[in-house]
Every structure is written in C-alpha cells, then in structure tokens.
Specification:
This protein is mainly α. It folds into 3 domains: 69 residues, no CATH class; 147 residues, no CATH class; 56 residues, no CATH class. Helices cover 60% and strands 0% of the residues. It has 16 helices and no strands. α1 packs antiparallel against α2 and α2 packs antiparallel against α3. The longest helix is centred in the first third of the chain and has 22 residues. The protein is globular, with a radius of gyration of 19 Å. It starts with a helix and ends in a 7-residue tail after the last helix. The structure holds iron/sulfur cluster (2 copies).
C-alpha cells in the first residue's frame, strides 16, 4: 500500500507511468520477504529479505533503465547533472539516496540495492568483520573517482553528453559499470569471507547516503521489556559489522551509519531484545 501511495504521488508529480509499476512492485517484493520472515523459523527467516532483494533486482536494474534508456549508476547520473539534464536518474538518486535516507537511512542498501541482491546470496557463512573499520575510508576514493571521471570527460576531453551520451550510450555504460561492481564485489567477498565487503570498502554510493543517514529517522531499537543475555549472536550475524550487542546492552537505538536496516540481527536474537 505504501508502494502504491508513493507511485501515485510520483505519477502525479512527474507524469511517468513507470512509477505505477516500480513502486507497487517494490512494495510487493518487500511484502513477500516480510511474509517469509513470519512463516519461516530460526535462521531461515533471513531468507525473506534476500528474496525481496532478488525480486526487486530486475525492476531496478533492467525495467527502469531500459524503459528510460538511462544510466542509473552514480557516475552516469553525475555526468548528466553536470550538463543540467535532470532526468529519472536524478529522481532516483534524490529519492533513494540523497533525501530518502532522512527517513529510512540506509534501508536502500538492505532492501533494494541490485549489487547487494547478488552479494547477499553468495555461499559465505558468517560475516567476518576482522578488517579494521578505518579501511572503510577507501570508499571515499571510489566516490571521488566517480565524480572525477565525468568531470575529466567534460572539462578536459570536451566530451559532450548531449550529443554523445544522453539516450545514446547510457545503457551500455550502465551495464559496463554494473559489471565492474560485480567483478570487484564477488571476488572481494570470497577473499575477505565477507558478503558485504564491497559495501563496506568500495561502494561509492554509501558515501552519498551518509549525511542524510546520520540524521535519519528509522532505527533498530532495543525492546526495553526484554533482556539481552550477551550471546553475541546479533553481532555475528550483522552483515555490516555493527556492534549491535553494545547498543542493546545499553538500551540505545542503533545510530551507526553502517546499519542498513536489514533486521538480520532482530531475526536471530533469541530473546526478542531487538525491535
Ligand atoms: S545492526 Fe541489525 S539491522 Fe543494522 S545492519 Fe546490522 S544486522 Fe542489519
Ligand atoms: S542476539 Fe539478542 S540476546 Fe544475544 S547479544 Fe544480541 S541483543 Fe543480546
């Protein structure tokens, strides 16, 4: 119902029929995942969110870019914004990554990212979080590279996106850029025994989300009436290496900007301490 409501608002605002497909489909996919979390037991409940991600993938990676003939990757969006072309790619970024996180923080990473939709299904059992957290600053390098490449093309090489790129070569760059993400993300996950290694150390999109996420509304919270038995199961299952147990023991909401609201910690907690 929320998906349908967002679809109608955006359809009225931007007059594009695709919103009436995209947002109800995202809502449906998340509902399927939620249903699986209710009917499945134990760790099997973690499958629910992964199913949602997989259902959303064709919608965001194929339907929306192909119908619009647009590149929705960060560098592609920056390239068109650079020359003043504010199209669907910009709307996507504004909703999902710039302003949306004021409400759902990094929920996009946990529930809608098409790169993570593949990474989360990799056959890697536990989340190895032994790499020092400071290594996550590498993402700032990839972020600046994503901005510098379009700037270099336009300013130094006099590349004209209006004649050479927009609605001509966007799709090609979308799939090349995505292919690069998978080519880095999948081996890195196996090398570091960490499905979300790409999200932590490489993904430039997470950098875009950080300012709004730091003041975002929706948070994972402790259930004050329940007890934490310090079993550490939540920490072991957190794909982003958040110290969930620390927050729960001190009865505080999780404000760590690495939290992707995946609810995996909540689904494995034996005492229902996490809500
Ligand atoms: S703290 Fe919980 S909701 Fe946040 S990323 Fe970790 S497991 Fe997911
Ligand atoms: S899984 Fe639940 S009980 Fe165990 S440490 Fe985490 S919050 Fe505490």
């Amino acid at each position: 119902m929320i998906g349908l409501l967002i679809a109608i608002i955006l359809y009225k605002a931007f007059n594009w029929w695709g919103f009436l497909v995209t947002f109800p489909w995202i809502g449906f996919s998340i509902s399927v995942g939620g249903f699986l979390r209710v009917v499945l037991k134990g760790r099997k409940r973690l499958i629910g969110r992964k199913v949602s991600l997989l259902l959303i993938l064709p919608c965001l990676l194929f339907f929306v870019p192909i119908v619009n003939n647009e590149n929705f990757q960060l560098e592609g969006v920056f390239l068109i914004v650079l020359v003043g072309f504010f199209s669907k790619g910009f709307i996507h970024y504004a909703i999902a990554k710039l302003f949306g996180p004021l409400i759902w923080r990094r929920g996009f990473c946990g529930h809608a990212c098409w790169t993570a939709a593949i990474l989360d299904w990799l056959p890697i059992k536990n989340c190895d979080n032994s790499v020092p957290r400071s290594y996550r600053n590498i993402r700032y390098i990839t972020f600046f590279l994503s901005l510098l490449i379009p700037l270099f093309l336009v300013i130094v090489l006099s590349y004209n996106p209006w004649t050479d790129y927009i609605n001509k070569h966007e799709m090609k760059w979308m799939f090349i850029s995505n292919g690069v993400y998978y080519l880095i993300g999948i081996p890195l996950a196996f090398i570091l025994s960490d499905k979300r290694a790409f999200c932590k150390y490489v993904c430039p999109v997470s950098v875009v989300m950080l300012p709004a996420t730091s003041i975002g509304r929706i948070k994972i919270k402790p259930n004050i009436d329940k007890e934490c038995i310090a079993c550490n199961v939540c920490n072991k299952n957190c794909p982003m290496g958040v110290d969930v147990m620390g927050y729960m023991i001190s009865n505080k909401a999780i404000v760590d900007t690495e939290c992707i609201l995946c609810s995996d910690c909540k689904n494995v907690c034996p005492t229902n301490k996490i809500r």
